[in-house]
Design goal:
seven-stranded parallel sheet; Alpha-Beta Plaits; Rossmann fold; elongated; five-stranded antiparallel sheet; binds calcium ion; alpha+beta; about 20% helix
């Protein structure tokens, strides 16, 4: 008796893990923590990570999965050596229980939740976090402003622009050495500072653009004593593309972009002649060097109709460059009082330049973000009191009051104007182009105008009746469909494992994921894995048969069509379930409220499952054991409990004999 008791005592230590798993050398994910994390959406309810021990065979792995009826979803690393996998548990099984059971399996080093990280790029730029940059906020960002552009929602979706997207700023010059702009200023790779026009575009040493106002290569003409020089151009540039996430200053709609200065506004304004040169300079740069210039920002206006300037803007449209223009600050209805350049339309040709196939001009009004400014007595979401408008000639509104951005001398300032609204839209065009590299200018414009947020104050005042809404590109709206993956093939079949491989399409980038779809014996396709980031996948099929696969690409919430189909016949080796355990003995232990169990094990069993009932309950699974004994504790004194056990292999055995005991 003494010997039996001491054996049970040893079992008690080993088996305490059945109920409350302990993890050596790693912090415990307590069952309660896991359950809470799943309830909070911080951990997947169905997916978990299983790290197998070194040298564990595929059969052992299947056996471990079998304990909780899990399926491999994806091999994450260590193919054939020390495998780490993403697995899925069936509906109805709690993640906490699954992890507790798997942790017991001898093949498993550890099992842990598939934590869900909130994926974002959050600006740490001080004037973003302090509430100054309302134009970048959205309804669901922190800080929030429902009337902001929603750029921060894009950042949360890891869309922060690209250095391969270029925009032209036709304005004053730019303080290109500004601490929060310098990294995003374009450098002409085809030009050196050597007194020679190396790229043959007619401008000598135009390494950052050109100053058409003074006809020289210096696009910044301010100084520490003359900080107002080129301040306006520096300010709009910061809204388009101040460096984000660098802990300095502000953040532009694009954290990464390249800005080309086409300076034509000097201290006394600019001329039509120089505006034409500036527009053509950017068009010619795009055509000469095949540069990815997607838009020009035109926060300027005045004067009458110029056919020569109209022609230049049409030439830009034909080169695929959007012309994004301020509606003006004169409170006029541009439908009845012409405002240039925002009223130009490139689908209307002239006697000297035929119409372009689409209207490249986007005209932008200024929106209020709060009632704090005297221009916004109507409150947040109203048209700024100075803003021009037009039900047909003005496309949308964007943040244009109390806009904080870069100014010369590493300073930051708050400006008001449709000039400040316009670069939010130009920034949006560049950001969209970075997300969808295949999109052309017409598609970019359609995406911006088609996603505007309906705004009461803008009905009858803008063609869309809405405001810039970058957040609208995410979630249910999505972007254009990506291209389907190609060259899907079955690399190998090993037991129940089918190894797939495919090629991503040319438009895929780091945000692209893949869905894997499978069908059996000519049935219909269903998705077996989604969110796959690699271009390969290891499927473990449930039974023998002929399986066919296709894969799809996912990007920006949109799915591609199917890839080619790849098929393979799979013969799953059948290992019979182990025999049922025998000689189960339940016996009350000396300690109160505990019953000891022992049984004769089964050949080939990798573990055992324990079932229990009372006079008032039916049999239910209560836990597992790796050996042939267990202690059930926490029972009610004086209650009789009845048990049976099963053996686990590739399948579960039948039940052992039943045995009962009454807890002390
Ligand atoms: Ca040149
Ligand atoms: Ca040169
Ligand atoms: Ca200059
Ligand atoms: Ca910054």
């Amino acid at each position: 008796m003494k010997k039996y008791a001491s054996a049970l005592a040893a079992v008690l230590l080993a088996l305490s893990a059945v109920v409350a798993p302990t993890h050596a050398q790693r912090p415990a994910d307590s069952a309660a923590d896991v359950a809470q994390a799943v309830a909070d959406g911080r951990a997947s309810a169905t997916e978990l990570l299983i790290q197998f021990r070194p040298g564990v065979s595929a059969d052992d792995q299947r056996n471990a999965r079998g304990w909780v009826n899990a399926q491999r979803k994806e091999l994450l690393r260590g193919r054939g050596t020390v495998e780490l996998e993403l697995a899925v548990i069936p509906p109805g099984l709690s993640m906490a229980d699954a992890i507790a059971v798997l942790t017991q399996h001898p093949a498993v080093a550890f099992a842990e939740p598939n934590w869900i990280y909130t994926h974002h790029d959050t600006s740490n730029d001080p004037h973003f976090t302090d509430g100054s940059l309302w134009g970048m906020y959205g309804a669901d960002t922190a800080p929030a402003n429902a009337f902001g552009s929603g750029a921060a929602t894009a950042w949360e979706n890891v869309e922060t622009g690209s250095s391969s997207v270029l925009v032209g700023v036709i304005d004053e010059g730019i303080n290109y050495n500004h601490e929060d702009l310098a990294a995003n200023i374009w450098t002409n790779p085809y030009e050196q500072v050597d007194g020679v026009d190396n790229d043959g575009n007619g401008y000598v040493d135009d390494v950052r653009g050109w100053d058409f106002a003074n006809n020289d290569s210096s696009v910044y003409d301010g100084s520490s004593k003359r900080l107002s020089i080129d301040a306006h151009g520096t300010h709009v540039s910061g809204t388009i593309g101040a460096v984000g996430g660098n802990g300095i200053g502000v953040a532009g709609v694009n954290w990464n972009v390249r800005i080309i200065s086409a300076k034509f506004l000097g201290t006394n304004g600019g001329t039509t002649a120089n505006a034409i040169k500036a527009v053509d300079y950017l068009t010619d740069l795009k055509l000469l060097h095949d540069l990815n210039i997607v838009a020009t920002n035109n926060s300027w206006g005045g004067g009458g109709y110029s056919q020569a300037l109209h022609d230049a803007i049409i030439r830009g449209a034909k080169a695929g460059i959007l012309f994004i223009a301020a509606a003006g600050n004169s409170t006029t209805n541009n439908d009845t009082t012409n405002s240039y350049p925002s009223n130009y339309n490139t689908t209307i040709g002239t006697g000297t330049e035929s119409a372009a196939g689409f209207d490249a001009v986007i005209a932008v009004a200024a929106l209020c973000g709060s009632s704090a400014s005297s221009y916004c007595s109507g409150g947040a979401g109203t048209l700024a009191s100075f803003s021009s408008y037009g039900a047909t000639t003005v496309d949308l509104a964007a943040p244009g009051v109390s806009v904080y951005s870069t100014t010369p001398g590493n300073r930051y300032s708050s400006y008001n104007g449709t000039s400040m609204a316009t670069p939010h839209v130009t920034g949006a065009a560049a950001l969209y182009a970075s997300m969808y590299a295949d999109s052309n200018a017409g598609e970019i414009k359609q995406a911006i105008l088609g996603s505007t947020a309906p705004t009461a104050s803008l009905v009858g005042k803008t063609a869309t009746g809405g405001r810039l809404n970058i957040a609208g590109w995410f979630g249910s709206i999505g972007g254009p469909a990506p291209d389907a993956p190609t060259s899907l093939s079955v690399l190998s079949v090993s037991g129940a494992d089918v190894s797939l491989d495919w090629d991503a399409a040319a438009d895929a980038d780091s945000s692209t994921t893949f869905n894997v779809l499978r069908k059996l014996n000519g049935g219909s396709y269903s998705t077996i894995a989604s969110g796959v980031s690699d271009t390969d996948y290891l499927d473990t099929v449930p039974a023998s048969g002929t399986y066919c696969y296709v894969v799809q690409a996912m990007k920006g919430g949109s799915s591609s069509g199917n890839s080619n189909e790849a098929c393979a016949g799979v013969t799953v080796p059948v290992t019979p379930a182990p025999a049922a355990p025998t000689n189960l003995v339940a016996q009350a232990m000396t300690a109160k409220k505990q019953i000891g169990l022992s049984w004769t094990g089964s050949a080939g069993a990798a573990g055992y499952r324990i079932y229990r009932k009372t006079a008032t309950t039916s049999f239910a699974y209560i836990g597992s054991a790796s050996g042939t004994s267990a202690v059930n504790s926490g029972l009610n004194s004086g209650v009789m409990y009845t048990y049976y056990v099963t053996a686990m292999g590739t399948a579960e055995s039948g039940p052992s004999n039943e045995s009962s005991a009454t807890a002390r």
